[in-house]
Design a protein that fits this description.
22 helices, DNA/RNA-bd_Est1-type, 67% helix, mainly alpha, 454 residues, Est1-like_N
Length: 454
């Protein structure tokens, strides 16, 4: 019996064991079978790469996911028996730790066998650093020539998702880390591989659902639904989430538009005390000036959320996207003026610029820039951007404002452009202007300056 047949045999034994023990945890047998399947899968990877790659999904579904669901059912059924529940939780954690080690080793084995990132050295360096894995080019085998590179990368991607899901289950079981840091780290590494895929974004939304963070949840669901490869079910989840907010959204239509933005934004932040107080505020942007908790990250996510919802035709009233983006451009000009007059600190520019870029990038992709930027507004906006760049000499401060938390890099904002190859994702050359001395930079402000030249 070869490794592949042995895997099938042990999976069948595990399935039978889980079906035969719905009310008690036979942890010894479950863990033995899990470890046996994992060991065989690892041996299969060493001996028959193609067969191993074809089984990575089935190992998760038939082995690990089945075991995790089994333990979740056991925990739900013994809420009145604390001693038994504690014992089951301890055994559940053992299975989760074993699965974590398996996927880490599986990924590291693939990376050692294949030079997956030779074409993008910056990704290679960052990815290996995240995995805490040191490699030597001499250890790469000739298997890469025989196996489809995309297939291997997809396998690594799926394993990273499994690794993130396992970390999420562990937090829910142990309650030791409410921030889900390890799960976020795995999903972000999956994002480094395939930013156009919506699967990991949907999983990110699930994490923030547990933390009752509506803005993050809506943001990642919208990104997942709008991705080039959308996650099945993400749009349905987005619809459910929005429907719970529909009543309050309709009430907002009767309010001044700038207040609508403030209300909707604060509603997404689940800050209902501030939501009630904001009714008496004269403008939405006052929250940037008065609320220290208002961040660049939040406004950027909110703007991207608005863009995604417009793309998916989700908004409950017509013309919201036009009014919101015009409002954002107008308020950005006001903020730039305050900074140039030294009435406000530079951090105000850092708050608004990433969101402004998200808005302009979207309307540019639709080919409707003129709808949002007439000649007068166009001149006002970009003359201020040019002044800001000159005022801060090299523009380093302005570029740094677009360096968001690495966990929040979304679909079309993922490119890090090296000095030696200064191109946008669409391969159009970008003028370096004042940023030519920088080793790495993000295209945000540079793209705005490109519009200014034309």
């Amino acid at each position: 019996m070869n490794e592949s047949d042995k895997v099938d045999h042990y999976v069948n034994l595990l399935r039978q064991l889980l079906n035969d023990t719905p009310n008690r945890s036979n942890v010894a047998e479950i863990l033995v079978l899990q470890n046996a399947i994992q060991k065989l899968a690892q041996e299969l990877l060493n001996n028959d790469v193609k067969e191993a790659l074809s089984r990575d999904s089935s190992i998760w579904l038939l082995c690990h996911y089945s075991i995790f669901q089994h333990y979740k059912c056991l925990l739900q059924g013994c809420t009145s028996f604390p001693v038994l529940r504690k014992n089951i939780r301890r055994n559940y954690e053992k299975c989760l730790k074993s699965a974590t080690k398996f996927y880490q080793l599986f990924i590291q084995t693939l990376i050692k066998q294949f030079d997956l990132f030779i074409d993008v050295s910056w990704l290679h360096e960052r990815f290996l650093k995240q995995l805490r894995l040191r490699t030597d080019p001499e250890i790469y085998s000739s298997l890469f020539e025989e196996t489809d590179k995309e297939h291997v990368l997809n396998c690594v991607y799926r394993c990273l998702i499994c690794l993130g899901d396992t970390a999420r289950y562990f937090v829910m079981c142990s309650h030791k880390d409410s921030t889900f840091r390890q799960a976020l780290r795995s999903y972000f590494m999956a994002h480094l591989l395939f930013p156009e895929n919506g699967y990991h974004k949907n999983q990110m939304a699930i994490l923030y659902t547990y933390q009752n963070n509506d803005l993050e949840t809506l943001y990642w669901l919208a990104c997942s639904s709008s991705s080039f490869v959308p996650m099945s079910g993400a749009q349905s989840n987005l619809t459910k989430k929005l429907s719970s907010m529909q009543k309050k959204l309709k009430q907002m239509q009767k309010v001044n538009f700038s207040r609508i933005v403030a209300l909707l934004f604060l509603l997404c932040r689940s800050n209902f005390a501030a939501l009630q107080q904001s009714i008496y505020e004269s403008a939405a942007f006052c929250h940037i000036k008065q609320n220290e908790n208002f961040t660049s990250r939040e406004l950027f996510m909110f703007t991207t959320l608005v863009v995604c919802l417009h793309h998916l035709k989700f908004f409950p009233w017509d013309g919201f996207i036009t009014r919101y983006l015009k409002w954002l451009i107008s308020e950005s000009i006001n903020v730039f003026d305050m900074v140039l007059k030294e009435v406000a600190p530079l951090k105000f520019v850092k708050i608004v610029a990433p969101a402004l870029y998200a808005a302009l990038r979207y309307v540019s992709s639709l080919g409707v820039m003129d709808t949002f930027l007439d000649k007068s507004t166009f001149h006002s906006l970009f003359s201020r951007i040019s002044k800001l760049v000159k005022l801060f000499d090299t523009g380093l401060e302005l570029i740094s404002l677009t360096r968001e938390d690495s966990r929040l890099r979304v679909w079309y904002f993922t490119t890090i452009i090296p000095k030696s190859n200064c191109r946008l994702p669409n391969s159009k050359q970008i003028p370096l202007t004042d940023f030519s001395h920088l080793r790495y930079y993000r295209p945000s402000l540079t793209l705005l300056l490109k519009y200014n030249e034309h």
